[in-house]
Amino acid sequence: MITVADLRAASLRLRDAMEAEADALNAADGALGDGDLGVTMRRGSRAVAEKAEDLPEDFGMALMACAQAFTKVSASSYGTLLATGLMAAAKEAKGREGIDPDELPALLDAAVTKMMARGKAELRGKTVLDSLDAMARALTRTDDPAATAVQAAEDAQVAFRSKPATVGRARIFGEKSVGMDDPGMLAMTKIVKALTGR
Amino acid sequence: MITVADLRAASLRLRDAMEAEADALNAADGALGDGDLGVTMRRGSRAVAEKAEDLPEDFGMALMACAQAFTKVSASSYGTLLATGLMAAAKEAKGREGIDPDELPALLDAAVTKMMARGKAELRGKTVLDSLDAMARALTRTDDPAATAVQAAEDAQVAFRSKPATVGRARIFGEKSVGMDDPGMLAMTKIVKALTGR
Amino acid sequence: MKKILNDPEAYVDETLAGLCAAHPETYRLVGEEGRAVARTTPGRDGKVGIVSGGGSGHLPVFTGYVGAGLLDACAIGDVFASPTSEQMADAIRVADRGAGVLRLYGNYGGDVMNFDMAGDLVEIEDIETTTVLLADDVASAPPEEAEKRRGVAGMVYAFKIAGAAAEAGLDLAGVTRVAQKTADACRSVGAALSSCTVPQAGKPTFEIGEDEMEMGMGIHGEPGVWRDTLRPADAIAEEMLDRLLADIEIGGGDRVSVLVNSLGATPHEELYILYRNVHARLKAAGAEVVMPLVGRYATSMEMTGVSFTLCKLDAELEGYLKAPCDCAFWIVK
Amino acid sequence: MKKILNDPEAYVDETLAGLCAAHPETYRLVGEEGRAVARTTPGRDGKVGIVSGGGSGHLPVFTGYVGAGLLDACAIGDVFASPTSEQMADAIRVADRGAGVLRLYGNYGGDVMNFDMAGDLVEIEDIETTTVLLADDVASAPPEEAEKRRGVAGMVYAFKIAGAAAEAGLDLAGVTRVAQKTADACRSVGAALSSCTVPQAGKPTFEIGEDEMEMGMGIHGEPGVWRDTLRPADAIAEEMLDRLLADIEIGGGDRVSVLVNSLGATPHEELYILYRNVHARLKAAGAEVVMPLVGRYATSMEMTGVSFTLCKLDAELEGYLKAPCDCAFWIVK
Ligand SMILES: Nc1ncnc2c1ncn2[C@@H]1O[C@H](COP(=O)(O)OP(=O)(O)O)[C@@H](O)[C@H]1O
Ligand SMILES: Nc1ncnc2c1ncn2[C@@H]1O[C@H](COP(=O)(O)OP(=O)(O)O)[C@@H](O)[C@H]1O
Ligand SMILES: [Mg+2]
Ligand SMILES: [Mg+2]
Ligand SMILES: [Mg+2]
Ligand SMILES: [Mg+2]
């Protein structure tokens, strides 16, 4: 079972990883966008890590507290979408002490649905949605959820590399964006690696 | 006798010299001032040279026409003072076909007097006034007025180099200006060289 | 980093503190986090409220346009970053005089998502809200995808015209209609000559050669449509106006306002050199230029460059454009 | 050269053409060479005229301040260069409404000599003139030689206050007295972070390191009193205010206006960060800040940097400062 204790430890790893990757994420976002994705992730994950000690024992409420901490300091597209997804997952897990890894696909699907509504984007548009969807699909058939999640995020990132961007400022550089990672997908790979400790 | 024909030829030499020296004069003025002295002299001497063909045969009126041509395109301190001095000399020479070299000290003194009134500055303040005054003094006792004028301008420039500036923006850098040429004195040396063809 | 600041993290809060200290008759900070600014003298009861919001670093946009005949309140994010939905909700609450609130802001992902969430937050408090998005930057999407374009300096017209409509007593639907009409009537394009520096980043957002310019660049330094050596003013003006006129028809008998806007460092002298060209060309096309705006109306801090905005007017829009307004950055008598 | 222009030689004429095309209700070109600008609606008969003049590249100074309650006319030189005495005489002639004309301008060698000559030129035409020189830059000479100081942003106060006095009907001696009182009440100091480029020169006037600033620099790029690494905003504000307060006493009960002015590129955000500090300090000293001005009031094109001006007020000056005025850059209602 994944518990609030796991969440606490994961949030500290996430903060350290984002601290280390901030410049790289800024640079990836800056290639065709405004170059703030590293700032978003650093500020957001710092805020979440600061709350780690005080997270409630209800797993759903703990996810909600993470979302609120993140959104209070970062309102960029990515930060807002992540918080939206976390809140959706939080509702599913409310009143429970933890979740079982095989519930992950359902939580991810709930997150993606809300994120699509919030961001008015579709799947297969080369965004973080595709990373989350790929993880949800892969996690339905695995014994090693951590490794599977990381692999799925990485595979999705690579698979979509050859597609043109469809959201944000990068979209107007259709052809130029082909061959480049979507910064949000790249970030999700790094996030999942940090959360799972790989 | 110095005639209007001499003035015409001299004005063309002056234009060519100022064309060549503009950057050097800008740089000298820029060390402690606004760096526009080369612009002043280039624009002014171009305007005078353009009028060369049309100068009236009355030597005084010809000097007046030079002053007006200069002042129409350049209203900096230096340009305005030169024009003021030229106008004063013009009054002295009005109605004549030319002047004798031994009249030069009187013309220069007339110019300096008016320039002092216009610029509210004194002699011995390390300005163009001191170059003109030095020439006036030296020209009272010479057989070779051209060589003497050049020598006097150069000597004055060098002699005042070790004094602090007293006019314009350079003044506030009292000590820093010691050892530097006054840009207006430097310009006068170059002007006299060009006018006399040395 | 050629910026005058203390702690980069305090850039926005210190700016707002100075703004409110300098103009206490116009601006006051509201909300828990001090990231919403409202009119010191609120609109009268029953007036439709207008709020905007977005990242800092664009003064007078957004906060500067809080004032009589303009915005009622504004939520302010960090430099080039969206405010949070809570901050936006603060702005909406203070702007509400019982007749509902128009959310009027630029089409940017973070801003849209957060203003949507803010709308959800205040809905429970029975505050009715509507939304009009500015999407005037023609370089940010082709005409077929016009709704995906980003909002830039055109929002100045929208603030002014919607603000006057609200002052004139139109209801929420009416103010929203007028704001949407204005948004539809505006087209903008920008050209940048140098970057600006986001305080928290500490270095220029993009590199650009000493003799280069970029056409169509975004106001946060997002890449434009071409980069090449710097062209003469008239060539720049002509291409920019071409790009706008390709997107909106303006001809004989039309009345149009034009904003020639500095992105920050470009001085008034150069704006007027450009305006001279634009004015002559619109006049030659038979159009009448009404109340041209030349100056710094929507900036990216110290970025060098300009943007042009055309706002095609009908009698209703022209009347509201010319109506009085009063803030620290713009007075119409 | 990060400038938007056509022919460098045409920079000033094209700027003036654009200015007059954009604001025909305010500005019109007069004089043979088109280098004088006058109010489109002249002051009423019998009003004292006020003219200024000087080099271009400082908008809104000088030309921008032609307008009701401000200047009647202005002579415009090339960038950073004095206008000619003929151009100044043109401005004086058009400003004369039969009650004489005040020449109100900054203390620069070329300007002084030429305005003196212009006075001689119009004297024969029976136009009475007086002169008040602005010499507010404390960094340009010590207090013992205060009359040798150069004129900088303090002239904005002089234009405004003298303009209101003329509008109020004072005679030439009265307007001259009020203008001189304002000049005596103003102190300024500037700090530059980067140079600007004179179009005809084509390269920056001075070199300054990426992390350097210069205190006391002149508005044409003349060297200042020290150059060092860039300091935090509060340290800059404190030193600049120190330098002003060392020169003019301001304490409990005093009323003072303060101008926090961008030299061009420095954005409003940073001006407010500085203002915040100045405001707090003047308040702590017991002084009341009246009508603070924060913005681009006197620039050096795209130069990065700021200047502070203090204008110590009595009841007469305060009344005129707050009186209405109207030009394209400044409206007081
Ligand atoms: N509407 C959207 N739907 C889904 N994902 C989105 C959307 N907008 C942005 N993203 C994701 O967020 C990433 C960019 O985030 P961010 O840098 O925060 O955007 P911005 O700076 O434009 O607000 C993209 O790479 C993409 O993966
Ligand atoms: N008031 C004055 N009296 C005499 N000479 C002066 C005066 N002012 C300036 N000069 C001379 O002019 C030179 C500077 O001229 P210029 O560059 O035109 O000044 P600015 O740019 O300050 O108008 C000085 O080096 C000095 O020789
Ligand atoms: Mg981004
Ligand atoms: Mg962003
Ligand atoms: Mg000079
Ligand atoms: Mg000069």
Outline the secondary-structure elements.
The complex is a heterotetramer, with two copies of chain A (198 residues) and two copies of chain C (333 residues).
Chain A: E1 2-3, H1 4-30, H2 37-51, H3 59-73, H4 77-93, E2 98-99, H5 104-119, H6 128-139, H7 145-160, H8 174-177, H9 183-196
Antiparallel strand pairs in A: 1-2
Helix pairs in contact in A: 1-2, 1-9, 2-3, 3-4, 4-5, 5-6, 6-7, 6-9, 7-9
Chain C: H1 11-22, E1 27-30, E2 36-39, E3 49-56, E4 73-79, H2 85-95, E5 101-106, H3 109-123, E6 129-134, H4 154-167, H5 172-185, E7 186-194, E8 212-215, E9 226-229, H6 233-245, E10 255-262, H7 268-284, E11 288-289, E12 293-295, E13 304-313, H8 315-322, E14 325-327, E15 330-332
Parallel strand pairs in C: 3-4, 3-5, 5-6, 10-11, 10-12
Antiparallel strand pairs in C: 1-2, 2-4, 7-8, 7-13, 8-9, 10-13, 14-15
Helix pairs in contact in C: 2-3, 4-5, 4-8, 6-7
The structure holds adenosine-5'-diphosphate (ADP) (2 copies) and magnesium ion (4 copies).
TL;DR?
The complex is a heterotetramer, with 2 copies of chain A (about 200 residues) and 2 copies of chain C (about 325 residues). Chain A is built from 9 helices and 2 strands.
Question: What tags apply to this protein structure?
Answer:
heterotetramer, A: 198 residues, mainly alpha, Serine Threonine Protein Phosphatase 5, Tetratricopeptide repeat, two-stranded antiparallel ribbon, 2 strands, 69% helix, globular, C: 333 residues, alpha/beta, Rossmann fold, Hypothetical Protein Tm841, Chain: A,domain 3, 2 domains, seven-stranded mixed beta sheet, six-stranded mixed beta sheet, binds adenosine-5'-diphosphate, binds magnesium ion, transferase (chains A, B), Dihydroxyacetone_Kinase (chains A, B), DhaL_dom_sf (chains A, B)
